[in-house]
């Protein structure tokens, strides 16, 4: 009887067994709760950094933020580009979203809704900076992943639903 025939169903030997062990080791290192935490942080960071650049104090936009929405940013839609309507309001809403959504996302509090907000902001950013689609695609993928699978067990949402 050959060695391979003496193994039970589903058991492997040699290189296949080694590969199986490596796969299990890699899978243990990528715990879903850790993966989702890293995704939340990775999505939050670029928005937080952008948001921090817009403020001069509590609920006070700096002049650069308004100037960007007045003179620099435009929506690249068919027949356009078009300047943002109500640039001061758009700058304020953008600044608020870029601060609030990342905080909620990192904490895992209302994380699916925060990810939805950042997905919407990503779509607006894509219309504003169409050449940035490779990074915008990664932001959208992270937001969609969080929306689909939730924030994971390392989140306030998880512990709130378990209480």
- Low-confidence runs of at least 5 consecutive residues: none
Mean pLDDT: 91
Main sheet: which strands, in order across?
Answer: 1-2
Query: Could you tell me the number of beta strands?
Result: 4
**Which structural class do the helices and strands define?**
mainly alpha
Overall form: elongated
Proportion of residues in helical segments: 55-70%
Radius of gyration: 23 Å
What's the order of the H and E elements? Answer: HHHEEHEEHHHH
Count up the helices: 8
> Kindly, what is the distance between the CA atoms of the first and last residues, rounded to a whole number of angstroms?
57 Å
Strand content: 5-15%
Main β-sheet: number of strands, strand sense, barrel status?
2 strands, antiparallel
Question: How would you characterize the overall build of this protein?
Answer:
It is a single chain. With 163 residues, this protein is mostly helical. Helix content is 69%, strand content 6%. It contains 8 helices and 4 strands. It has helices at residues 3-6, 15-29, 32-52, 63-72, 87-107, 111-128, 133-149, 156-162, and strands spanning 55-57, 60-61, 74-75, 82-83. The strands form 2 sheets. The protein has a two-stranded antiparallel ribbon. The chain has a two-stranded antiparallel ribbon with strand order 3-4. α3 (32-52) packs antiparallel against α5, α4 (63-72) packs across α5 (87-107) and α6 runs antiparallel to α7 (133-149). The longest helix has 21 residues, at 32-52. The radius of gyration is 23 Å and the shape is elongated. The relative contact order is 0.14.
